[in-house]
Design brief:
The strands form four sheets. A four-stranded antiparallel β-sheet has the order 8-11-9-10. A three-stranded mixed β-sheet has the order 2-1-3. About 40% of the residues lie in helices and about 20% in strands. The chain has helices at about 5-10, 35-40, 50-55, 65-80, 110-125, 135-145, 160-165, 175-185, 190-195, 200-205, 210-215, 245-270, 300-315, and strands at about 20-25, 35, 60-65, 90, 95-100, 130-135, 150-155, 235-245, 270-280, 285-290, 320-335. The two termini are about 20 Å apart. It folds into three domains: about 5-65, MutS, DNA mismatch repair protein, domain I (3-Layer(aba) Sandwich), CATH 3.40.1170.60; about 130-230, 5' to 3' exonuclease, C-terminal subdomain (DNA polymerase, domain 1); about 235-345, DNA polymerase, Y-family, little finger domain (Dna Ligase, domain 1), CATH 3.30.1490.100. By secondary structure, it is an alpha+beta fold. The chain is globular. α4 runs antiparallel to α5 (about 110-125) and α10 (about 200-205) crosses α11 (about 210-215).
Length: about 350
């Protein structure tokens, strides 16, 4: 989807159309969750501190996130996908892989399917989507970013290697800005430079991901579509309107966050062995502490006790904290449904942003 959250806000509120919009944050504080294309022209992007976004674009309009709306729209989009195939692997609310090799409408052209899906999204939801078409996940994802917004790009099998040789290294999906800078320092600016590196040298410099880089620059990616992606963690966090330096106040908020997290854990019918506490500082630097148990955490009281201990280990009294979070990972199915001792806490409602 094209600038998904921001596009929904512009669709639903006509006064925002054609204007630079940031979802989330304010001119003083917060983080941009999504930016309209009008805002992106000024260098505003998602995950950017909103104060920086305001400096780049003083006329920017900040709007509150409405995640319940975004989730509902995402559900409607996926219903359209399922008209064509059950092999749908969501990456997020606004993006998914579809395998249409065999499809419900027996359409022989993936290009035709992509056109129809984009038209249906536009007609039914008044939103635009961009599609990338190719013979594997990596190339399809790469193609999807070539002609945004409202674009459709195709990378054919006999075009892939030549295309990748000329592609700037920062345009490769899976190579972030930090890795791209490291590659440039090593003389890797385009795909052809990456392709010249032996696998052993890539492994030496980039560890286990070296193998991934070696194959994707050759257009090789054997990953299949996984319609039911395994959830790896469950978390909850809160960003504060003002930095917190008082440890007792942090712990009070931590308890409230634990209430929210435990409700999500109950709904997921999962339990996990690893508890992690995260703090983010005023300068956006994050610190985490984790503990893994032999058995899954079965009660909220144990989750809270461990979260408080981990917070103490982070020595929060030495920081001004802007965000607190707790997550549970190393998940497994819940084999004990007796959570009655926790039920009194499940009605707590907090707004997280």
């Amino acid at each position: 989807m094209d600038a998904f959250f921001a596009s929904i806000e512009q669709r639903d509120f006509p006064h925002l159309r054609g204007k630079p919009v940031a979802v989330g944050g304010s001119k003083e504080r917060g983080v941009v969750a999504a930016a309209s294309y009008e805002a992106r022209k000024f260098g505003v992007r998602s995950a950017m501190p909103s104060a920086l976004a305001y400096r780049k674009c003083p006329q920017i309009i900040f709007t509150k996130s409405r995640f319940h709306v975004y989730k509902d729209v995402s559900f409607q989009i996926r219903k359209i996908f399922f008209e064509y195939t059950d092999l749908v692997e969501p990456l997020s609310l606004d993006e998914a892989y579809l395998d249409v090799t065999e499809n419900k409408k027996n359409i022989s052209s993936a290009i035709q399917i992509a056109k129809e899906i984009r038209e249906k999204i536009n007609d039914t939801l008044n939103l635009t989507a961009s599609a990338g078409i190719s013979y594997n996940k990596f190339l399809a994802k790469t193609a999807s970013d070539l002609d945004k917004p409202d674009g459709l790009s195709i990378i054919l099998p006999d075009e892939a290697e030549a295309f990748l040789e000329q592609l700037p290294i920062e345009k490769f999906y899976g190579i972030g800005s930090v890795t791209a800078e490291k590659m440039k320092k090593l003389g890797i600016y385009k795909g052809k430079d990456l392709k010249s590196w032996p696998l052993t040298h890539l492994n030496d410099n980039f560890g286990k991901t070296g193998k991934f880089y070696y194959y994707i620059v050759r257009g090789v990616d054997h990953r299949i579509i996984k319609p039911h992606r395994e959830r790896k963690s469950i978390g909850a966090e809160r960003t504060f309107s003002k930095d917190i330096a008082n440890v007792e106040l942090m712990k009070t908020h931590l308890l409230k966050i634990a209430d929210i997290l435990w409700e999500r854990i109950i709904k997921s019918d999962k339990r996990g062995k690893t508890v992690t506490v995260k703090i983010k500082l005023h300068d956006f630097v994050s610190h985490t502490k984790s503990k893994t148990f032999e058995q899954a955490v079965k009660s909220k009281s144990k989750l809270v006790d461990e979260a408080v201990k981990l917070l103490d280990e982070l020595q929060p009294q030495t920081f001004n904290v802007r965000l607190l979070g707790i997550s549970l990972s190393n998940l497994q199915e819940n084999n004990n449904n007796d959570d009655s001792d926790e039920s009194d806490d499940l009605n707590q409602q907090l707004e997280l942003w």
